[in-house]
Amino acid sequence: LAKRLVGTEKNIWVDISKMAVAHNATNLGQGFPDFMAPDHVVQSIKDAVADTNPSVHQYARSSGLPRLVQTLSKLYTPHLGRAVDPMTEVLVSVGAYGALYCCIQGLVNPGDEVIIIEPFFDCYQPMVTVAGGIPVFVPLRPTKEGEVTSSADWKLDSAELASKFNSKTKLIIFNTPNNPLGKVFSLEEMTEIADLCKKHDVVCISDEVYEWMTYGENVKHIKIATLPGMWDRTITIGSAGKTFSVTGWKLGWSLGPASLINCAQVVHQNCTYTAPTPIQEAVARGLELEISRVGTPESYLTSLAQELLPKRDNLAHVLAGLGMKPVVPDGGYFMMADYSNIDVDLPDTDEAKDFRFVEWLIKNKKLAVIPPTAFYSAEHKHLGENYIRFCFIKVRMVNHL
Ligand code: PMP
Ligand code: GLN
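Above: the input record for the complex with glutamine. Below: its predicted structure, written as tokens.
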């Protein structure tokens, strides 16, 4: 193994999925839907595959199929409050993973510091270290006790956050709605982060793959790129997999100023060069229809969250009934729950407690969930040890619990 990869060998999705299969467990760990995409999206991929125009089956333009980048520009222009140039301000990648990889690799120099808010989507850390960067962690901390709490109760400490920024800070990786907590950051919280980015000349990578999934009238997804002075220093990342409930399609995008997008493009052109053309074509067709449905009851971009809301509430109810303390998320499709009231005799090993509990659950209850210490630095793992993460987009779940 190449030296720069040492320390990144373990992967929580590979490990838990393997264990779930080995024990024939219901997998409420890894996040993906167990139902079909909306009909028009299924039709889009059928149409793309059946298209007799040969160009739909050949390499696309490296930074994105023209039809797709134009559609993304049209979709996001109102949300970003500015005209997005489809040819220079959009990059299409293989999944949001591909987008994150190209952005981080394209921007981070060895020795640069990168601020990561905990709990974080696990790949941020290895992507930063492989680029030679130094991750600097700052945790969200629960501010309330109770049988049922909210993801909004988890907050950054302002002084602690500010103390992480210095002249070596290159990037902050920001994720709202957050995975695994489901926290949707407020305007006030984002303003604090944006002010620090501007003060210390830091770029913000904003991972917004769950942008369409927020719950309730009072919760609004805000794009940090729309805050004053932030467009020029932000790359916003999205995912077709999350938007259309097709995680296997692996299509993601980055939007931002041409100067930053170009850094990611330089990585992309020598990595996968382009994303699969029929998938780009299908996503373009799907999004075109969605644009025409904005504001109507047919809009999948709003109806998915409406469908998820009762599933979220049902899971919180079921978990509370089992003696756990759910942290009800404002967004995304995951829920953390404190299981420490459940009395189980766990083996005494060096592994974090949540890992031991998850192993026990998989083997004895045939239920796979994710141990959240995978989303923390060594220093802050204790903050996640009493929790497990459930995915509530899966329909089968209701029957299993
Ligand atoms: N960011 C977050 C926060 C995620 O949860 C995921 C995975 N679901 C990704 C990025 C990667 O998305 P994709 O499947 O499009 O690569
Ligand atoms: N993002 C998904 C999750 O958090 C899964 C990612 C993966 O399987 N690699 O569950």
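Notes for the reader.
The chain has a mean pLDDT of 96.
Residues 31, 95-97, 121, 175, 179, 207, 209, 239, 241, 247, 250, 252 surround 4'-deoxy-4'-aminopyridoxal-5'-phosphate (ligand 1) (CB under 6 Å).
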